[in-house]
Design brief:
mainly alpha; two-stranded parallel ribbon; flat; palmitoyl-(protein) hydrolase activity; PLipase/COase/thioEstase; AB_hydrolase_fold; carboxylic ester hydrolase activity
Amino acid sequence: MHDSVEEAEDENDDDASVKLDEDVEDMFERDEDESGTETKFERAVGCLSDELGTCGNVSGEHDQPAMQSIPVFMGHGTDDEKVPCSIGKLAAELLTTLDVNVTWEEYEGLDHSYSDMLRDFVEFLENLKPYLELRF
């Protein structure tokens, strides 16, 4: 994973799969001697809540599925001049470290618009129907 947004912007990687850099420390990893039952996702929300000065309770009191149990599709064009593709990939990598099931697609030659990406997104949603029917 990238250490900074600047590093992600500088990257010129043609690999469209989301993969993590094994040498980068996972800030949400729990030490062996730490107690508690929080997931990485809950710890991440807690860290962000502390940073923002908000309440970030994500555990227990509701029956909605956990964020990381909902599949997420992320797609980005390689020729996007408004938001570099590497920033989208960085976001996908971050969600992956939080145990979110991310499907990442890069679209060669696509700028800041839709087309093949929209088609793939609709197909992704269609494939969620069985999942949603079981859940709700």
